[in-house]
Amino acid sequence: MDVPPNGTPTLSLEVLRTEKPNANDQPVTDSGQPEVVKNGQAYEDGQVVLGISASLKDVSTTLSEGLESLEKVELTVDASPGAVVKSDGSFVQTITVDKTELDNISFQPVKDFSGNVSMSAVATVEDDVALTTTPATAKRQVRLLQQSFV
Questions:
Q1: Are 67 and 57 in contact (CB under 8 A)?
Q2: Which of 22, 32, 56, 66 is least surrounded, with the fewest CB atoms within 10 Å of its CB?
Q3: What is the rounded CA–CA span in Å between residue 71 and residue 110?
Q4: In angstroms, what is the C-alpha Rg of the chain?
Q5: How far apart are CA 25 and CA 45, in angstroms?
Q6: What are the DSSP calls for 102-131, one per residue?
Q7: How far, in Å, are 54, 56, 60 from residue 12 at the CA level?
Q8: Per-residue pLDDT tens over the stretch 107-131
Q9: Contact 21/43 with Cβ under 8 angstroms?
């Protein structure tokens, strides 16, 4: 039996770190100096690594009650502030990341960009439940209209 949700599900987007700046916060490619990772901060011209988390509001704690988890999230960003970096190094405005990549989403701002970046996200939530010996899975989508980071 699945316990009804307790509240509205939410998604959060967090800056985890900026990669590729040097000690003076300049891009490594421009300075030739070693890279310095800046944890918890987003710097212009560096590659900003983002993480997505969710509060799904299902209070179930066992498979027999039904366990919710994020299966995948589709992120979209406008081209003016930058682009999301795919694992092959290409730049895109929309990317779908699965649950194994939710804490390693790279965003590359355009050169010298400073300001807020807005992203929209659509999450697919998986609800697993075991009834007797037959497991079942249901999926639903949670839409986050806009999330910004600085």
A1: no
A2: 32
A3: 30
A4: 18
A5: 9
A6: TT-EEEEEPTT--S-EEEEEEEEEEEEEEE
A7: 6, 11, 21
A8: 998 888 888 888 888 888 877 766 5
A9: yes
* Among candidate residues 62, 44, 54, the one with its CA nearest the CA of residue 116: 44
Total residues belonging to the chain = 150
Q: Residues 9, 134: contact at Cβ < 8 Å?
A: no
- CA proximity to 93, closest of 85, 83, 104: 83
Q: Which residue has the tokens 């999230």?
A: 73
Residue 61 CA to residue 38 CA, distance in Å, equals 36
Which of residues 24 and 72 earns the better pLDDT score? Answer: 72
Q: Note the pLDDT tens digit of each residue in 38-95.
A: 677 777 778 889 998 887 766 666 666 667 777 888 999 988 999 999 999 999 999 9
Given the DSSP bridges, would you call strands 117-131 and 91-92 parallel, antiparallel or unpaired?
A: unpaired
Average pLDDT over residues 5-14: 72
- Residue 10 C-alpha from the chain's centroid: 13
